[in-house]
Amino acid sequence: METYIWRLLTAMFLLLMAAVLAVFAFLLQDAVFMLGLCFYGAVLCALIGITKGFLVMIDYHRAHKDEE
Question: Residue 23: which H helix or E strand, with range?
């Protein structure tokens, strides 16, 4: 059970980092390089976080389905 919690926490952390990077991208609109770096970092963190969250939920569902 603990592994699922930690894996979900890391997925939520990645989503939080995506939100922070999106705010930085908004604040640093004038600096083109930093805007691109923050934007692509936010997209990458969001995609990895969402994928990791779905995989954890699927794995948790499969584990509990096998117990029944």
Answer: helix 2-27
Query: Cβ(49)–Cβ(11) under 8 Å?
Result: yes
Is-contact 59 4, C-beta < 8 A?
yes
Q: Which 3 state secondary structure label does DSSP give 61?
A: helix
Q: Output the six-digit token pair for 46.
A: 């969001």
Q: Supply the pTM of this predicted model.
A: 0.85
Q: In which band, very low, low, confident or very high, does the pLDDT at 28 lie, cut at 50, 70 and 90?
A: confident
Of the candidates 1, 8, 17, 4, the residue with the CA atom closest to the CA atom of residue 53? 8
pLDDT value of residue 56: 93
The Cα–Cα gap between 39 and 61 comes to 33
